[in-house]
């Protein structure tokens, strides 16, 4: 998903010092950004517990590892959402609701996006599920967040962060590519590899081709 809309590429680790490791931990979580140099641990853990095995949830956690915070943590959130602190489990000590200014993080030229993959839903961490914890200012009935896929804002931030715009993005030309990876090395379909470079894993691992 990320590779199809950006120049970011994921490769199997060989001798790289810093790397991402997916494991079955407790809950769905990842640290934000590459923490190895600060923590002394080269392994960046991404926990995928039972119940986390959905594409949108996994991509959400990968985006954390790629340095993205929750959308509701933006400093300008008060222009867009209301936090109902009385119903937030852990209240103001819940770090999923901490607000980070531009001196702490970068918004990469984006506006607040209530439909970002990084935006929590209306009832996230609710003590009482009859009441919302996050409410849209624009429309109190708006359903916030989603885990269906990257929003246009998510894609913009990703490409700005990794300076993809001056690179030719390696991408599959057809949506059915990933359905037929067996054709990558089938001599009867010589055009398949050319049209489906992501599926056939022939994109450059650090830049795009």
UniProtKB/TrEMBL annotation:
Active site annotation, chain numbering: 61
Cofactor remark from the record: Binds 1 zinc ion per subunit.
Keyword Zinc part of the UniProt annotation: yes
Pfam family, one: Astacin
Biological process annotations from GO: proteolysis
Protein name as it appears in the record: Metalloendopeptidase
EC number(s) per entry: 3.4.24.-
Catalytic EC class: hydrolase
């Amino acid at each position: 998903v990320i590779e199809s809309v950006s120049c970011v590429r994921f490769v199997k680790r060989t001798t790289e010092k810093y790397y991402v490791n997916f494991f079955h931990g407790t809950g769905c979580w990842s640290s934000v950004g590459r923490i190895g140099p600060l923590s002394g641990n080269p392994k960046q853990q991404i926990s995928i517990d039972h119940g986390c095995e959905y594409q949108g949830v996994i991509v959400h956690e990968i985006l954390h590892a790629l340095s993205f915070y929750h959308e509701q943590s933006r400093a300008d959130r008060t222009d867009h959402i209301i936090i109902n602190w009385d119903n937030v489990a852990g209240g103001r000590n819940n770090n999923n609701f901490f607000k980070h200014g531009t001196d702490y993080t970068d918004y990469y030229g984006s506006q607040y996006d209530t439909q970002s993959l990084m935006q929590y839903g209306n009832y996230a961490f609710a003590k009482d599920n009859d009441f919302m914890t996050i409410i849209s200012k624009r429309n109190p009935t708006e359903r916030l967040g989603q885990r269906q896929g990257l929003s246009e804002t998510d894609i913009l931030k990703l490409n700005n962060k990794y300076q993809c715009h001056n690179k030719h993005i390696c991408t599959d030309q057809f949506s059915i590519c990933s359905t037929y990876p067996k054709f990558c090395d089938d001599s009867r379909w010589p055009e398949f590899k050319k049209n489906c470079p992501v599926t056939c894993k022939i994109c450059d691992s650090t830049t795009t081709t």
